[in-house]
Amino acid sequence: QEEKKQLTLKVEELERKLESTSAQNIEFLQVIAKREESIHQCQLRLEEKSRECSSLARQLEMAIEDAKRQVEQARERAVSRERAAQSKVLDLETQLSRHKTELNQLHRSKEDAERRFESRLQDLRDRLEQSESTNRSMQNYVQFLKSSYDNVF
C-alpha cells in the first residue's frame, strides 16, 4: 500500500507536471501562433515594401531616362545655337570684310577724285592765269592801238 501510495503521489505529481507542461505547451503554441502571425504580417509588409520599391525603382529609371533625354535635347539645342552663332559670326565677319574692302575702294576712289580735282583745279588756274595774261596782253595791245590811233588822228 505504501508503494501504491507513493506511486499514486508520483502519478499525481506527474499529472500535475503534465498539466503544467500542457499549460506551458499551450502558452508556447499561443506564442508560436502570435509569432507566426507576426511573421506573416512582416512578410506581407515586406512584399508590399518590395512592390513599392520596385515601383519607385521603375519611376526612378523613368525619371533618369527623362532627365537624360532632356539633357540631350538641351545639349542639342545648345550645339545648334552655337552653330547658328558661329554661322552668324562668320556672316558678320564676311560682311565686315566686304565693307572694309568697299571702304578701302571708296577711300582710293576719293583720293583719286581729289587728285583729279586738284589736277583739274591746277589746270583751270593755269588756264585762268594764261587767260588773264592773254587778256592783259590784249588790253595792252588795245591801249597801244588806242593811243596809236589817237596819235594818228
TrEMBL record:
Q: Does the keyword Coiled coil apply?
A: yes
Q: Which domain of life is it from?
A: Eukaryota
Answer whether the UniProt record assigns the keyword Cytoplasm to this protein: yes
**Localization of this protein:** Cell projection, Cilium, Flagellum; Cytoplasm, Cytoskeleton, Microtubule organizing center, Centrosome, Centriole; Cytoplasm, Cytoskeleton, Spindle pole
Please give the start and end residues of each transmembrane region: none
Q: InterPro entries per the record?
A: Odf2-rel (IPR026099)
Gene Ontology biological process? cell differentiation; regulation of cilium assembly; spermatogenesis
Q: What is this protein called?
A: Outer dense fiber protein 2
